[in-house]
Amino acid sequence: MQHIAILGSTGSIGQHTLEVVRRFPEKFRVLGLSANSNIALLSRQVKEFRPCFVAIADSRAAEDFVSKFGAKGIRLFAGQHAAGEMVKDSRLDKVVVATSGSAALAPLLSAIESGKDIALANKEALVMAGPIIMRRARRKKVKILPIDSEQSAIWQCLDKQPSFKLKKIYLTASGGPFRQMPKEGLKKVSLRQVLDHPRWKMGKKISVDSATMMNKGLELLEAMFLFNVPAEKIKILIHPQAIVHSMVEFVDGSVLAQLSRTDMRIPIQYALSYPERLSNPLPGIDFYKLKELDFQSPDFKKFPCLGLALRVAAQLGTAPCVLNAANEACVEEFLKGKLRFTAIPEIIEKVLGRHHNRKEPVLEDILSADTWAKAQARRIIARSN
Ligand code: MG
Asked: Could you tell me the distance, in angstroms and rounded to a whole number, from the CA of residue 348 to the centre of ligand 1?
C-alpha cells in the first residue's frame, strides 16, 4: 500500500489522479489533499477519500472550509505554507505535485527534503530551479517520476539508459489551437479560442501556454534538467495527432517512441504504480482508424516563445526562471483581459533583455529573480495600457 498526498487535488491533474486512486483502493491510499480555494470540490473529495490531512493555501477559504464542512478527524493546514508543511508527514511515501505555476516550488522542495518520492506534473518549478531540485533529489535518494505526458514518454523510452547513450530527444507538440491559423490571425484571437485546445482538456495556465507554445519551451527546459541533456540534443516536433508523446534516439540509431491515447490518466497511473504496470479500462489506439501520424518542424516565427525558450536554454543560470516568471505574469494579465495574446512574447523578451543573468544560482537567487521578473512584466504591461 502506497500512501500519497496530492497537491492541487481540485485541478485537472489532481482530479484525474483521484480517478486512478479510486480504481486501485488496495494499492493507493490518499493521506493528504491540498487545494488553493475550491473548497466545495475539496469537501467532496475529503468525504470520499477520508484523508488524514488537508492543506488550503487561501486562509479565508480554509476558515470557510471549517465553518461549512467541519474538519473533524482531519489535521488542517492553512495559508501560504500549508502544502509545504503537510508533505513533511512521515507516513507519506509519495507526493503528487499537480499544482500549476511557480507556487509549487516550495512544497516540492519540502517534500524532497523530507524524503518523499515525487510524481511531478508541475513544470514551472523545474524550469525555475531544475539543477537545485535534481541535486537535492539525488542527495535524498528521492525519485522524480514525471507525469507530464512528454516527459513520461522520454522517461519510459530511456528506461535507465545513461544519458550519454542518447543521441536525440524528439519532444512532440500537438501545435496547440492555432497550429493552422496564419500568423496575422493571432493578433485577434479571443480568450475563448485560446482556452479551446484541440487535443487536451487542461487548466487555464497550461492552455494559454499551449496556445503560445511556451508550454513546449518550458518542456524543453524541463527535459534538460530531468534527464541531464543539453538543449542541442532536444528537437521539438509538431505532431498534430498527439499519439506519439515523445521519442528518444540512441547512439546506435534506434528510435524508441511511447504511444498512447491522449489521456492524462495513463502517465499519472504510471507515475503512481512505477515500476509496475497496472491494467487500465481505457480503449487502446485504433490504428486502422488513425491511418496517419504526421510530423512537422515548428514555426519559430509564428510562435516566438519557442525561440525565447531556446535562448534561455543556452544561457541557463537565472534566465529560465526569469522566462517562466515573466510568462506567468503575462498569462495572468492575459486571462484578466489586460494583455493581447501576441504581446505575451513581446513582454517576456523585454524582461529577459533587462535581466542580468546569474550563473550557478542558489535558491535565494532564484526566488529573487522570480519576484523581480514578475514585477518587471507587470510594470511594462501597466505602462502600455
Ligand atoms: Mg505536456
From this structure: 21
